[in-house]
Fold:
Amino acid sequence: MLLVLATRAASAADAAAVTGADPGPASLPHDAATPNELYLEVILNAEATGLILRFTQQGKGLLSSVENLQQLGLDPVRFGASGQAEVALDSIAGLGYDYDPARQSIALRVDDSLRMPYAVSARSTTRPAPSQVTPGAVLNYEVYSELGQTRRSALFNDLRYFNQHGVFSNTGTISLGGGQREYMRFDTFWNHANPDTLESWQVGDLISSSLSWSRALRMGGFQWRKNFQLRPDLLTFPVASVDGTALVPSSLSLYVNGVQQYAASVPSGPFVLNQVSGINGAGQATIITRDALGRSVTTTLPLYVDTRLLARELSDYSVEVGVLRRNYGRSSWGYANDPVAIASGRYGISDDLTVEAHGEVTRGVLNGGVGGLLRLGQSGVINGSLAASGGRNKGAQASVGYQYLGPRFSIDAQSTRSSAHYGDVATLDGSPAVRAADRVSLNLALPAGQSVNLSYITYRSPGLEASKIVTAGYTASLFKSVFLNASLYQDLRDSAQRGFYFGLSMAFDDIGISASGSRQNNVNSRSFNAQQSADFGGGFGWAVQGGTSGGLDYRQGQLEYLGNYGRLTGRVQSSALSNASALGASGAVVLMDGHLAAARQVGNGFALVSTGGVANILVLHENRQIGVTGSSGYLLVPNLNAYGNNQIAIGTEGLDADARVPVTNINVVPRSLSGVLAAFPVERYSAATVIVHGEDAKPLPAGLPVLHVQSGKRTVVGFDGVTFVDDLSAENEMRIGDDDNLCVVRFAYVRPAAGGLPVIGPLRCRNVKRPAAPAASEGGR
Structure:
């Protein structure tokens, strides 16, 4: 149909040329008011699009559907045609065209302001796979015992149970000796998280929400909150975006502060590069576009990113209801009687403005306030808040601050003032509110890896002595692995309160050496330390330390061993007052997959590797050796990223020849405080090398077809009558050859106890005689 319409239009144009008439628009009807449909090849900014689109000719002008223009990458909002079905090309400012009736084509010239930019993302991080959990339990423990005259011991324990519905956790310490024999409970709770909604709730002991101008509290009760930790790939703060124009199809490279962050190809026309990350504070982005001829265009744009802001229309909230926890660390069950309700919320109105709100209520106290952060373009971020309290403590609190982080210098200033009777829920627990606090810090980056920082801090609170302190610091990288750190301070309210610190550290391969000296309150101290940490895959580590503290000399040595089942440490210390020694052990006991295993201490997430009962299999985490499976074929991999991708792999070099591993690399995504089973089923071949001879006791010729009757698998005879057969049964039959020359061999198979692939034979292949075909009858001739 398109070809017929185009041919008709071309014929009309040729006829007009013969008569000498103005060709004008092709197929111009006698009645200029009658519209004429044209199907034209479209060229956009001198680049062929490969599209043939429908246009309408009316008079000497052309009309196009808005859908056509959108297909060409034009934005109808930008040329005022939003909601229209058709628009005249002559009415669009910034658009010109040349219509060629002979070639039935139209060449559009479009300003970049009318085109929808080609969008690409500079952040290629993909969303992790759905999180998984294998029901089980884990007990983290750490035992510490002092020897000698004191003879006291302590056992810290962290007990967890986890399944698809959440995690139960209980932590505490058992103290023995030194006149003590008690158990101190720290935190007990049940936590449930939903990565799809980014929400979690917790019942039991918890820490309440807070903002930079409010205070967090320990509570017992219920908490419901937004939890961005469930999506570690999600950027919650406003990220930068940069745009530009490519005259022709080009390659694009993005550099942030001189470091390449992204590379891609873009078509001709405008483009926008979103999700520009890798920066906190002020910096600059450099975009380089390079065409096929090597011609490049460089564009540099300033950026400012503050991770404290929330992205546009993104919210964060938390609500807690319960009672205050008191005497934490001194009492296992110290809770107040009066109920407390606390709520905090943040919302990104735009990428430049984030608003905040916080409220607290309990018997005799009502507290609430609002705040916000405002980005001043490339000049930093200001913040402010205003809160008021009622009930027993009626008052107000105000704060204001400014922060700018730059590659050459940074400044952070914050000031808080509250009235004499201002209070919040924490004041009921004996912690008075701050009456005045000021902080100003300045950091300057110097050449050759040096930096200088200055700070001024004042603090005034009821019951505490007011302070006004000035500090100065200097850091430098003297050589490749030598670092210098020096600082001093002076209390402006007391000229005698001053001090300094000087430190030098060096790293040589896996050995670290440091030396320091300091003076505080007219007391001199110095120390020297050398250490080598145990390798991540396991082994020994050591540390030695010596120095002077408070006029007393001391010396200390420590030896540790890190293995698959935990960490062992031994320490001796000597001073002018006493000699002491201590032993310690830390690790975990894990119950998963019906198996009880000892392991290293586990963190927020972990995986239990199973190799189907095969021992001594090398296990790697992110290409780092973590250990080998034990006699039962299990190994625990601790400290994985919860809700993130974690690559677990096994090495197959040490497996027997009859071993088969369907998969050697698994991506596991554990949930917080939980574990997941990473199963690597190691199977064993039921296979053998079978040597087959013929009736003449000579090897069968190579290339003969072989059929294993029991499995149905087919193979061929190799040189010297050797053939390899898999999926063997206790009794086996092989048919070798074709129908005209067929032989059969039968044999028994028993898998070797020591593993490996046995060699069976030589075996004699017995010929199969085919019965003679019956003679044809006379009547059948």
User: Anything to note?
Assistant: The two ends are 66 Å apart (CA to CA).
